[in-house]
Amino acid sequence: MKKVLAGILGAAVIALPSFAVNKENVGCGLGYMLFKDAPDSTLFEILAVTTNGTFGNQTFGITTGTLECKQPEKVVKNDRLFKFVTENMDQLAADIASGNGEALDTVAELMNIPVDKRDAFYRKLQANFDKIYSSETVQSADVIDRIVEIAQEV
Amino acid sequence: MKSLKRYKKSLKAGFFACLLFIHNALSYDLETLSHNPKWLKLLHFKNGKSEIDDPKFFLSKEGKTNPYKELVATIQAFLESKERGDNHPICKFPARFQFLDSLLKLKSKLSFFPECKELNKFLREINPQKISIIFSDYYINSPASMYGHTFLRIDPPFKSPLLGYAVNYAANADAKEGLMYYIKGLTGGYKGFYSIFPYYKKIFEYANLESRNLWEYSLNLKPEEVRFITLHIWEIKDHYSYYYFFDKNCSYQILYLIDIVHPEYNLTEHFNLWTIPVDTIRVLKEKGLIINLHFRPSATTLISEFIKGNPDINKNDISMAQKIARFEINIKNFLKEKSISTVKKAKILELSKNLFLYFSIKEKLPQKVYKKRLLKLLSARSKIPVKIPIKVKKPYPPEYGHKPAKISFEAGSENGKKFISTTVRTAYHQLEDRDTGFLKGSEIMFPAMTLKNFPDRNKTVIDNITFIKIISISPRNIIFKPTSWLVNFSYQRDWINKQKKPFINFETGFGLGYESHFLYYIGISSGAQINLYNSKNSRLISGIKFISIYSGRKIKHIFSIYPGLLFYTNNITKSVKFNYKSSFFISQNTSVTASLNYVILGGRNFYQFAFSTNRFF
Fold it and tell me: Do B378 and A133 make contact, defined as CB atoms within 8 angstroms?
């Protein structure tokens, strides 16, 4: 019955929990999309009611967050790559593990990997998954550095 | 800001003097220019006033209603501002400047050109080249989204669409307000703003969190036009207009952005009383602005399509994948398993991966558990170097569906009394309409009315007014276990004693849906019927509802049976309602329907049969 009611009145009646500020920084690691706005692990409610984006005071999401993140060492200033990897840590991990995917293609494009070398590059990344995503606390800068290392070997 | 105020003041003081100066200096008929369609579109002018409500969007006090005064004030501000940086009106209204400069050669009259740092940073980041309009599928579980949604995506010169930026128009609403949220949403109680976010965030929001497919229509616009749109987004981004759910909604406001580069198409003029997202796609298509379509499956579509596309994955494999995704079996043992081929292992793990990503959202996994499991699962997947590409079969795009409004002409018999009737529905889709382009097993009526005439008796009655009716039958399968539900609020003539009498009718129900060749629903329904003239006739009804639907390209059959009990103030009677409908689809927007109702009520039988021709518009 509850579900039906929610259906009638819309997900909108669900009260939004207020989130406590958490010290743990998820901005540069895994779980960016899931936990960025709700760092204390009871996530999604705030996102679950977006319904056509009728939410938010923030209207301009262009220059978000890599400022507070550790900077990659091996790559010469490539802000777009850094930002993309930081904000797509999970999807990129999922693509590397499978050896294909759109996030992986995007990274290859941003790194200017020639199209004919991508297959080999992806295979190499897949084989090195455990090194790239070495722990749950891995940071985007580390991921980029490892990927760059591997790219140099291809 | 101060500078702006100063200009407004000086404008007032020396308005006529300035006017003379500007006229002479520009040797251009500003009166004519102020009626230029492009200028009017840049101001979002329609029916004699601008649809932007934020006074800060205008440089003249009368700018909202007077495009000429706004033009003069704008030119004056451009030419006379002493600001050197981002606060210069040229930095704040770059699209207006580009447009006016192209006609009036304003640049040559400036004593200096301001340095628009923020704007340039924005343009570097977006680097606009191409543009698409994105349709996000129907989301029946939220009334605000059940008609779908549209937004734009601006692409930099990269192949990957993930690097694009989504431009969205949304109300700055607070869903916590409950009912007020809807009232305000309908009556303009919220301020609407344009926003811009990386496209991957929107993909996550729609395709992953809400499981809505995305349709990406590339538009036939030149890079300089895309750049002009981007400049306009910049000048409008902080300025609100009041949000109206029916007409001035997301899809409507998005059209303005295209109107400014193609004012001759006048896209916003097509929409007055209401704007249904898919209709905006239709208009763009008619104008030849759509050149390509890409389908992006939602998280659930991806999983279903993966299973369909890999027939070698059987039920056992699927349940194995589910156990792996839920960490009910050890992945390492699974990898070592000799009885399963390598390719099959890769497929099972691929499915596990997608299921895990889906479940982790649905079941709100705590952060620590999530990260640990994600890495474990992906690490296992990476051990099998076999690629499993997913081929997704594109369903019929939304614009292939019938149009949302419908008019039906009916003739039939109500227990022997001949009748003719007319039904008008403003939106959106009923079970008996063709599914193409719609959610299967869904019905949304909002609102509809039937007038019935009995020629032999020379009598006309209102047979039905449906305020809102929603049916959502979502099939359950080995992976997904959704609840199906329905709700109906209407004014309706219904059988009581020997005749039909008017009731206010409220019904809700919930149950389970299944799909094989037919789509089935079985659930509990209950409701109240309040008789308007005699409260003794008011009744509560409760029962079990069964619906089965056969759905083809050309024909559709719906059968339902609803046995239940009627509770009056002083007695209880049994009732059984049978309903049968067959629709034959002649074209995208024309169909014929035959229907039969049969009701057993307190030992008496009643029937109604009818034939109708339906036109969607």
Answer: yes
Among A13, A52, A105, A142, most B C-beta atoms within 10 A, so best to mutate, is A52
Alpha-carbon separation of residue B183 from B148, B425, B543 (angstroms): 20, 22, 32
The answer, yes or no, to whether residue B45 has pLDDT greater than 70, is yes
CA distance to partner chain A, nearest, from residue B490 (Å): 14
Which two tokens mark B408? 């039906």
Q: How far is B19 from chain A (nearest CA, A)?
A: 37
Instruction: Report ipTM (2 d.p.).
Output: 0.88
Q: What confidence tens digit (pLDDT) does each residue in B57-110 have? A: 999 999 999 999 999 999 999 999 999 999 999 999 999 999 999 999 999 999
Least confident of B72-81, B113-122, B177-186, B575-584: B177-186
Q: How far apart are CA B613 and CA B584, in angstroms?
A: 10
- Is the pLDDT assigned to residue B165 strictly greater than 90? yes
The answer to whether the Cβ–Cβ distance between B200 and A87 falls below 8 Å is: yes
Distance of alpha carbon B53 from its chain centroid, rounded?
24
Helices A89-98 & A118-127 angle (0-180, nearest 10): 100
* Residue B523 burial class via C-beta count within 10 angstroms: exposed 0-12, middle 13-18, buried 19 and up: buried
Six token digits for residue B419: 């009748």
What mean pLDDT value characterizes chain B?
A: 91
Name every residue whose Cβ is closer than 8 Å to that of residue A66 and which is 6 or more positions away in sequence.
Answer: A28, A79, A82, A83, A86, A140
Assigned token pair, B197: 């976010």
Q: With helix as H, strand as E and coil as C, how does B444-462 read?
A: EECCEEEEEEECCCCEEEE
Determine whether the interchain pair B385/A99 forms a contact, defined as Cβ–Cβ distance below 8 Å.
yes
